[in-house]
Amino acid sequence: MLATGVTDDHLIWMVNQLSGLDIGREKTIHILEAMAVVAKNSGSLDQIGSNQEVKAKIIAAVDAARVMGRNWTEEITSFVNVSKGAFSLKDIYHELHVIEKADKKIVRTTMSRLVLKDKIENIGNRDGIYRKVEDELEKIDYMNAPTDNVDLMLPLGLNKLVNLYPGNIVVIAGEKESGKTAFMLNTVMLNMHNHKINYFSSEMGDTELKIRLQEFYEYHEVPIESWAKNCNFYMRSRNFSNVTKPDQINIFDFMELNSSEEYVSAGQYIRDIWDKLNATGLAIIALQKDKGKDVARGGSPTMEKARLYVSLNHGEAKIIAGKNHAVRGINPRGMTKEYKVVSGCKFISNGDWAK
Q: What value does the mean pLDDT take over residues 149-175?
């Protein structure tokens, strides 16, 4: 109940009682005004002053309680610390459930202070778009770094042209039905006795996978039991970085990009996988590409982290990028090789790699 002589303490106490209902600033004010009117009419509230004075006092108490009730700097800093890439004031309003104008003003003021403290920075010419300042450095310990490449066999003899090292990314960009899955499964077959391999499939279920692996016995005499012993197969079509095994071989078949927004984000998705790899892990990522194009959907950003980037057309493979040359003096970039795939499991080369 509102007591005789409305004080700030009384109002703040009432606001705190109402805050648990999560009804917002305006509804809280209306409820307190209604309670004041009822108390005045019943004679239990004396010396209340004019309605305008009561409303002003209620508004002041509600705003004071809202400011006191939330640690805006702590909440916003926590949001910033877990954010990736660019974010906007609207993102903060949504994530922190900021509705009232007074609260939005507090958020904007807090953001301005974080900019001055070099915790965040504005992006571009638009107001209200930020990113976290990442000023932590990881020193490159090249003196103690190993120089051995990863002993990884690849279909079509690609490993004879390009060396791969721990933490590397390989991208296989292929047209539909050009042999992407055959390339990935052959990579498993060639390496599963020497490496821990995790295969993430976006399309094949258990029955289709079993039938596919049975073909390998006919053409390569690989018993299906040996796959189960040496490779873990999972269903997965997105958020690959969340399941990347940092110290193992990760094969993603394939990274689906189904919208213009995902095309733009493709480079970042690959970067997120790269960030998860450590000194022994490696990732091979299959991407869909359009006919006649060298680069996958998502464009040139899909190339940025790849140490080996191969384009598969129907019957022709092309090395778009090969950063670490296996043979001194021979740059494999632009080399092509004809091939065909039999029963989705056997690669047959036609000639050598050549420009």
A: 96
DSSP string, 84-146: -SEEEHHHHHHHTT--SHHHHHHHHHHHHHHHHTTSEEE-TTSTTEEEE---------GGG--
Residue type, 39: A
pLDDT level of residue 259 (50, 70, 90 thresholds) = confident
**CATH code at position 270:** 3.40.50.300
Residue 250 backbone dihedrals phi, psi, to 5 degrees: -115, 125
Nearest to 308 by CA among 338, 353, 241, 262: 353
* pLDDT at residue 19 in the model: 56
* Confidence label for 18 from pLDDT (cuts 50, 70 and 90): low
Please check whether residue 104 is in contact with residue 70, taking contact to mean a CB–CB distance below 8 angstroms. no
Given pLDDT bands bounded at 50, 70 and 90, which one contains residue 66?
Answer: low
Is 1 a member of any domain? no
In this structure, are 42 and 61 located in the same domain? Answer: yes
| Domain extent for 113 | 72-132
pLDDT band for position 22 (cuts 50, 70, 90): low
SS3 content of the chain, % helix, strand, coil (to 5): 45, 20, 35
Indicate if 209 and 304 belong to the same structural domain. yes
Within-domain flag for 336: yes
pTM of the model: 0.69
Give the pair of three-digit tokens for residue 124.
């571009």
In a domain, 2, yes or no: no
Q: What are phi and psi of 338, to 5 degrees?
A: -85, 145
Last residue of a domain, one of 69, 101, 118: 69
The mean per-residue pLDDT over the stretch 321-342 comes to 96
| Rounded percentage of the chain residues whose pLDDT exceeds 90 | 62
Cβ neighbours for 297, distance < 8 A, ≥ 6 positions apart:
257, 263, 266, 287, 288, 289, 290
Among 152, 143, 146, 160, CA closest to 278: 146
Tokens of 65: 């309680």
Strand partners for 311? 173, 318
Do 262 and 338 belong together in one domain? yes
